[in-house]
Amino acid sequence: MTHRILPSSLVLAGAMLTLGTLARASEFRYAEDQAPGIVNPLFASTMSEARVHELLFEGLYTDDKDLATKPALAASSQLSEDRTEMTIRLRPDARWHDGQPVTAGDVAFTIQAMKDPSTASTEQGRVAWIESATVVDDLTVRLRFVRPEARPEDKLFFKILPAHKFSGSSVKRTDGFRTRPVGSGPFRLDRYNDDGSISMVRNPEHSSAPAIESMTMREVSDKGYQAKLLIYESLEALVRVLPRDLATLQANRKVELYPYQTNSWWYLGYNLSRAPFDDPKVREALDLMVDIPSLLAPIGTGDPVTGPYVPSSPFYNHEVPGHARDTDRAAQLLEEAGYTRSGSTWTKGGKPLSLKISAHKSLESAQEVVINLQSQLQAQGVGVQVEFLDEVSWRSSIWRERKFDLVLSQWSFDRNEDVREQLHSQGSRNFTGYKSAEVDRLLDLARDTLDPQEKKQALRSVHALVNAERPMTFLWTLDSYSAMSTQVRNVVVHPFYFFTWADDWALQ
Amino acid sequence: MLAWTLALLAACSTETTPPPPPAAPSPLDQSWITTVVAEPQAFAQLIDAGPRDAWVAYHQGDWSAAARLARDFGLRARAEAQQAQLYEDLAGLEAEAWPLLASRWQERDPSVSDGPLPFLAALVLARAGQGPSALATPGLDPDQRAAIEALSGGPALSPEAALDPRGCLKASIAIWRGEHSGPVCPHRQALLIGGEERFTNPLAIAAGASLAKRAAQTSATPSEGLAASLFGDAWAPSTLAGLDLPDAGSSDDVQAARERARAFDAALETWSASLQERSTEDGRALLADLRLVEAARNRVLVDWARQALAEGHPHQAAAWLMLAHDVEQGRSIGPLNPPQRFALAARADLQTGRARQALDHLDALDGTVPELPALVEALGDLVVLEGLGRGGDSKEH
């Protein structure tokens, strides 16, 4: 059952009292807009899932606090002279939360399961470069690569699963593991609570010996109340602060803000396999009808983007002209696409131009944006319906069945800002169905080159191409901060996974 | 905000403002802020003589505009000194970014040693005072050695030295040596070396810093009274020492840094409340509207961060710089977000492996110094280099 904090001060006070009563001395409680649908790293698709996975699971390697790669489950490794094979020795003391040892078989199983098409892992792209994983002995696994790899450890951050918790070589999204996950991370899952929260407790077997005894992820879907819960000490952290709450939280002496820039951008994605969105003229016309600053203004301050990168990215192409609303040009394009304006509606073959905008319920401020967008497009003669989908419907309708016209969503990227999965024709996150041979070529080049300037130029060209072909209307990026109680000490936040160094955090 | 506040001040002030009650003693009283709230009319007269636009620009942290608009030589000199400090902070970043770029690139692809990159990194080392290390760079030709020596206090570069046909490097070296007053080359333009056009000028910021420093020295005019300190550092180090704040320790301990800042905030809060009680209505309006205490606090934290970077404590520097960030203004420069804050934050991020985040900070400085694009491109190369072959992770929301 999902617990929602209702917009009533009475309910809020009650909720805070309850949360406060539940809190233990060394309990760290943090708020997410939405609890993860399932807990299985092979199906991670949202930031809230990635954050929980960071607490419960480990990869072979991870980041140290200076973002240099360091071993996690790995103890040592040896790369073959031709750089096509890596032999990894695991830490002998690593244990799963059920007490079983972490073995080479677990590593091989995880990689095989991720690669197995019947698993349909959202993380499949992260192991595509590994040809095979072979168990040498209980603690040694040999990875063979598709092509020579300069620093394979930099790509071995994906989480490892316990093979003994699965039957067969593939993993199903519906496996019982999703509600009874067993990891090897610094915290283990204790229970799912009736209010939708997830309780995790310290893993005493973990080598890092976390100082915090328990972690609770609370779903607080009404984002407006998250800040209040923090101020009234019913939470220790907000992962993302609403722009309108920033000033209040910064002025509060019991709260500290931490930058949490995940290189995120908002977009409208067209379903390119559906008419009329397969027609570039129609996409361009819709794009030109949108008044982006008016959509952005009510939800905060941010920078508009013209492509799949944030403006401070080295891949951002500053030569691409900014978006400008042009309804005359939009009308002209629709006429060129065979539409005529009759009354207040555009029609083609007697059929009105209409679309449905889909957004995820948990996307902050999505409702305001969608309603404003609906109003803008309707004023230009486009019929618009809107729908807000829960996690299950979003996965099935958007990701798997691709039953949508236009989605409003946001992508967040780690420091590599790799848009391959979103824009390559083979990308596992390319649910708009975008296909461009030239973009594929440039993304392949960017993946393979050893020359950073060549990669930079290739991806700047990708930016220009997708801006011109408009599989998406690129909207904006928002500055992002998390907030934490000053009771939490030694905090350093990972710029993407947030909790990577949570084992160092302590409660005063 | 400053212009608006002054207008309000002029409209509301009367000659019969009651005298403030006796001041409670606090070391923090030894500040221009105390003077401003005690004598708001003197403050208004000073601003109007500035002229006002110049003071507004200075208050906003727009140093180049303040220097350009100032009629008062003292204000101009102060603005130029701030601009020189900004350049200096960025030059520190430039000096760290280029050698890192060269070493990381050579680790990934030794063939890059055959191109101009090692020489460019050596130039940066030389101008940062590491001439012998720079000269130890393998593969330097005689002209390149001469360029390094010229940056290390050796003889001037001969006009015939073949470095890059467009002369950007030669001009930068001449500026560094005080023999040339610029301008150099378009700063977005890559240098042309050995037929390759790949890298921007690694001395761009250093040359700009040299010019800015000379401008500040040339026009240095001592101001007196409030004009000498208004909107500047509010407290001398000795005054802050009198607060007995907890030490941040000798290690790069972020928690100790935050505790020190919190203790400072607590002291400021007490003093600020007492100051408001003692102020006239106009004084209180100035305090609140111009956020004088908050801005002064942030300047102190920025200074601590600069010192922490000098002492090799980048995590502490990053913590103080985060606390000195008015997040409501985001990446906009303003009274609470002086440009030096962003330059130092970029440097702290680079030193803690967060080169990508350093670019976010530099984004805020777009337009503050014309040479910045040269540094941004180099840092961008470093970011891309560090991500080569990594793949990456992405998620929704």
List keywords for this structure.
heterodimer, A: 508 residues, alpha+beta, D-Maltodextrin-Binding Protein, domain 2, Dipeptide-binding Protein, domain 1, Dipeptide-binding Protein, domain 3, 3 domains, seven-stranded mixed β-sheet, five-stranded mixed β-sheet, 13 helices, 25 strands, B: 397 residues, mainly alpha, 19 helices, 1% strand, globular
Structural class by sheet pairing and helices of chain A: alpha+beta
Strand order of the largest sheet of chain A: 8-9-10-1-11-23-12
* Span between termini of chain B: 36 Å
CATH homologous superfamily placement of the largest domain in chain A: Dipeptide-binding Protein, Domain 3
| Helix and strand pattern of chain B | HHHHHHHHHHHHHHHHHHHE
**Helix-strand category of chain B:** mainly alpha
Number of strands of chain A: 25
The overall pLDDT of chain A, averaged over residues, is 92
Assembly status: heterodimer
Shape of chain A: globular
Strand count, sense and barrel status of the largest sheet of chain B are: none
Low-confidence stretches of chain B: 8-16
Total count of helical runs of at least 4 residues of chain B = 19
Radius of gyration of chain A: 24 Å
Largest sheet of chain A: 7 strands, mixed
> Residue share in helices of chain B?
55-70%
How far apart lie the N and C ends of chain A?
32 Å
Helix content of chain A: 25-40%
3D structure, described in words:
The complex is a heterodimer of chains A (508) and B (397). In chain A, the strands form seven sheets. In chain A, strands 8-9-10-1-11-23-12 form a seven-stranded mixed β-sheet, with helices on both faces. Chain A has a five-stranded mixed β-sheet with strand order 19-18-20-13-21. In chain A, strands 4-5-7-6 form a four-stranded antiparallel β-sheet, covered by helices on one side. Helix content of chain A is 26%, strand content 23%. Chain A contains 13 helices and 25 strands. With 508 residues, chain A is an alpha+beta fold. Chain B has 397 residues and is mainly α. Helices cover 60% and strands 1% of the residues of chain B. Chain B has helices at 2-12, 32-38, 40-49, 52-60, 63-69, 73-108, 117-127, 131-135, 142-151, 168-176, 204-218, 237-241, 254-278, 281-290, 292-310, 314-323, 339-351, 355-364, 372-387; one strand at residues 394-396. Chain B is globular, with a radius of gyration of 24 Å. Chain B starts with a helix and ends with a strand. The interface between A and B is large, with 73 and 48 residues.
